[in-house]
Amino acid sequence: MSHHNTVFSQLLKLVPRHEFESLAIRHHKGRKLRKTSRWSQFVAMATAQLSGRYSLRDVVSNLSAQAAKLYHLGTHAISRSTLARINQNQPYELYEQLAGKLLSRCEGHAPRHGFRFKNRLYSLDASTIDLCFSVFPWAKFRTTKGAVKLHVGLDHDGMLPTFLSITDGKTSDITAARALQLPKGSIVVMDRGYTDYAWYNQLDSQGIFFVTRLRKNARYRVTGRRKVCKAKGLTSDQTIQLSGTKAANCPIALRRIGYKDTETGNQYYFLTNHFGLAAATIAEIYKARWQIELFFKWIKQNLKIKTFLGTSRNAVMTQIWIAICVYLLLAYLKFASTIGHSLQQILRLLQLNLFERRDLQTLLVGKPPTPPDPQLSFRLRFS
Length: 383
Hints:
383 residues; alpha+beta; 9-stranded mixed sheet; 9 strands; 18% strand; elongated
């Protein structure tokens, strides 16, 4: 029977260790760590993400129970106080940079989005993570509530969080969106929370297309009309010019598309600066924006970003960025293999076999482990 390291050890080999150590040196604060390392911190916090641990004591106890298998992970048992101190004091930017490197690896294997056009497609949205203000006083949101907010630009090639920033809960969605450096020729889709006529004009001047919903109180005049296929739910396709008080911020011609959902009967009006795509395609692009809602739902349900193992800002940011790193590792497994498992199925397989000595690829394919040779067992028993 062939020998295998633990499933967790094989998963961590996907992390470029030499790059990790380089980042660890660059993002270090204070005295040199003597009895532990940033790699040990990463292994411990990744264990919390993959095995569903809810406290530092739980994480440390789990690792101590697997002490004989930690050698192949390049780490050793770590005390609760040491892990808490590193989470609080050592800069979280290490894991932000690591997520960027893992993202680059994923992008090389990610499948294309399902549309026929070749433009890159991104969805923008933000999700709030509630915190107790008395426990997390730095997370300013409301008078009696605290929160941090995840701002994500989701690339539909593989559903990867290509653009991600974490701010306090008071930061508006549009403020984070203005800081994005989207590639020229890409298409970005967002809801009405990102309405900003000056930003629309800026995107257009940069050669970036956008698809969003038109606000109900928007003022405009129609300058042109095109025929639509009502069988596809389309009700109108117009060229408009904004005429409200802020119209001067966006002097360009825009396209207003009406669409009625045949299942719900709801009427929608989309706004875009892209005149080359069919009206039905614009409607489908906005419908695809739902993928970013599913992304937020998935990470909140399957990773540990709602309950935290530390109360300082650095500890919270460290936990969130390590969760993103784990998500990207799971995505890489999905892209690099030929299996049809969902991310949740892959995560469940890892949770059940994290410290088992099995071949990772064989586990993902679904083959049962090879039984031991009975003759070998007999010889060992009586030798």
